[in-house]
């Protein structure tokens, strides 16, 4: 596949919008957040702004959801705001349980007030009467930081919307937006069938807006600096910054904030210090539920419009790096087994797909010959859009891209013959 056409040059590289440096290891306090302009956007909105103006600024910003789906935030807000119901709710979703991603945990633990300001802004913009901050029960540091921030907010008299903290179970699907709603209602944390969408019928059968915590922290920045300032950062279709998680594969693992338009090579080398083992990068998986990006495309700017032609997406920024010594068949099987374990069991097509992916990949690993590519493709096509949530597509993306990106590895593992579908 030919490299995608690079996105336009980054129009502006601002200082970090979310992960501002702190002089200590603990969470940012109310006083520290106020000192850098925190809650200015909220106060300005309450004094002389309107929900419509805020929604318009977020639309101008071009902000898209940072949980992985990248849905336009302003459009999601409009759905609830125009629902016609008197009672509406809003939820900050920090239910992060994807292997390789720690950005939501770091954001809530280090900068809880940015998330809470964004949550209240979203509540005002959509006409909500109550809000929830949704975390996972094993997120001890973020929970403590959120509880402290909520106390400070209450003491300062700035709790302009009742906010409850809810802890969901430590399962992957519990982070899906409708699974989070079920958990808050005291039900099993499993996804709901859509439509209706939460903005139409959500918590307790009321319109509910669910935004990722990173999305909401960006909302607080937009309310303070304006939509145009946010839109000036990034590329044509991908605005602002994104949080990336780098793991132990690099010399400097951690969570990094970079503008859209940055390349994977810059992320790995400039931020991560290169691979810890000194080997060469063979491919990158932008997030568990994305397609692989081959080393030939490491200099393609990271943006929705540039990764789409490569069959991938920025996802949630939980980056996994494949070096030239990685057993790519074993890695693909590991990913498939994760989705098989973590599917909730509600939807027969999802159970079938995830189980069969594992079965087929094990056959490849055992050298049982060609035919796997055709089987995997047909299985994915049959199952597409047949689940309550998008896990059915998320499980297919890395598997289908792996057999293309690492075609020689799969053919060698499977044994003699020409793989079907090649």
What would your notes on this structure say?
The protein is of the alpha/beta class. The protein has three domains: 202 residues, 3-Layer(aba) Sandwich (Rossmann fold), CATH 3.40.50.11540; 83 residues, Ubiquitin-like (UB roll) (Roll), CATH 3.10.20.600; 85 residues, NADH-ubiquinone oxidoreductase 51kDa subunit, iron-sulphur binding domain (de novo design (two linked rop proteins)), CATH 1.20.1440.230. Helices cover 43% and strands 11% of the residues. It contains 17 helices and nine strands. Helix 3 packs across helix 6 and helix 13 runs antiparallel to helix 14.
State the gist of this model.
Helix content is 43%, strand content 11%. With 422 residues, it is α/β, with parallel strands linked by helices.
């Amino acid at each position: 596949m030919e490299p995608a056409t690079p996105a336009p040059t980054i129009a502006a590289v601002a200082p970090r919008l979310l992960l501002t440096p702190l002089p200590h290891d603990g969470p940012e306090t109310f006083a520290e957040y106020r000192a850098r302009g925190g809650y200015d956007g909220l106060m300005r909105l309450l004094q002389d702004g309107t929900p419509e103006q805020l929604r318009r600024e977020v639309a101008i910003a071009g902000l898209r959801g940072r949980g992985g789906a990248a849905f336009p935030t302003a459009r999601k807000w409009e759905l609830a705001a125009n629902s016609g119901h008197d009672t509406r709710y809003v939820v900050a979703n920090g239910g992060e349980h994807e292997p390789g991603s720690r950005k939501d945990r770091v954001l809530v633990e280090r900068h809880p007030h940015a998330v809470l300001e964004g949550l209240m802004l979203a509540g005002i913009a959509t006409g909500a009467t109550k809000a929830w901050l949704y975390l996972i029960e094993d997120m001890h540091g973020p929970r403590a930081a959120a509880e402290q921030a909520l106390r400070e907010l209450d003491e300062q008299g700035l709790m302009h919307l009742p906010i409850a903290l809810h802890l969901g179970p430590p399962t992957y699907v519990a982070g899906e937006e409708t699974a989070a709603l079920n958990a808050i209602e005291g039900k099993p944390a499993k996804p709901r069938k859509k439509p209706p969408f939460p903005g139409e019928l959500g918590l307790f059968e009321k319109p509910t807006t669910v935004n990722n915590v990173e999305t909401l922290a960006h909302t607080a920045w937009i309310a303070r600096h304006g939509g145009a300032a946010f839109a000036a950062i990034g590329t044509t279709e991908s605005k602002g910054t994104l949080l990336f998680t780098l793991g132990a594969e690099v010399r400097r693992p951690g969570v990094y904030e970079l503008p859209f338009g940055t390349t994977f090579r810059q992320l790995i080398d400039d931020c991560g210090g290169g691979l810890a083992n000194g080997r060469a990068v063979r491919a990158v998986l932008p997030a568990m539920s994305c397609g692989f990006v081959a080393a030939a495309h490491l200099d393609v700017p990271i943006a929705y419009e540039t990764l789409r032609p490569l069959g991938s997406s920025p996802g949630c920024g939980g980056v996994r790096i494949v070096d030239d010594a990685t057993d790519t068949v074993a890695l693909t099987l590991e990913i498939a087994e994760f989705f098989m374990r973590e599917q909730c069991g509600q939807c027969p097509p999802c159970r079938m797909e995830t189980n069969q992916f594992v079965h087929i990949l094990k056959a490849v690993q055992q050298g049982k010959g060609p035919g796997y590519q055709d089987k995997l493709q047909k299985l994915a096509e049959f199952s597409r859009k047949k689940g309550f949530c998008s896990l059915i597509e998320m499980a297919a993306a890395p598997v289908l891209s792996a057999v293309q990106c690492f075609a020689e590895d799969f053919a060698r593992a499977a044994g003699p013959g020409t793989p079907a579908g090649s």
